[in-house]
Amino acid sequence: MPQPSRTALLIAAHPDDGEFGAAGHCSQLADEGWDVYFLVCTNGAKGTEDRAMHRERLIALRREEQREACRRLGVKDVFFLDHEDSELVYDRALLEQIVRYIRMLRPETVLTHDPADIIILDSFINHPDHRAAGTAVLDAVYPTARDHLNFPEHLAEGLEPHKVRELLLWNSNSPNFDVDISDRVDQKINALAAHVTQFGDQQDFATFARERWKSEDGRYLERFRRIQLQF
What we know:
alpha/beta, Rossmann fold, two-stranded antiparallel ribbon, globular
């Protein structure tokens, strides 16, 4: 077996999704010497209640907020696919884009939305963009990025097939893997606070965030559905 690459790729539908789902674990990996990358599928153009906000201004702000959040986590780089917010469609074009980044960055671990259910933990609805992104990522990891006959034009660009070894899915109804982020919760909240357009009252948000990730035993956890690919 080849040695693990110590590269992680987080793929999210919107700016700030990755921080909600996996900021603590991503910061841990970065501190352990991993190269951590973010890939954001949509432009975030509908993420506001401010009726005076111009869409192009919001897109630019959300992109810069995402870059700042990644800086606060030690993420090596962030990429944007710029699909329209709330209109993400899983099609061959989206699949090709995600496969391209997997083949380019060659991650050991991919983190993304769990697309399996519409209702999550009987408390919120899984956004259709989340479901589209998560499904595309799963199909990109297996089998598409592995098979050289899928998007053979990549070979001409020097992008070889790649096998991801671990998937971590957040917001899952079936979590089987907990990551203790008790020493990272402030960093996670600080990364989320970079998304100024999304969270107005920072103190109220910090209180909410702490309660959201606090377990019954007082630890702060990020919970994932973990899939270890054996072949």
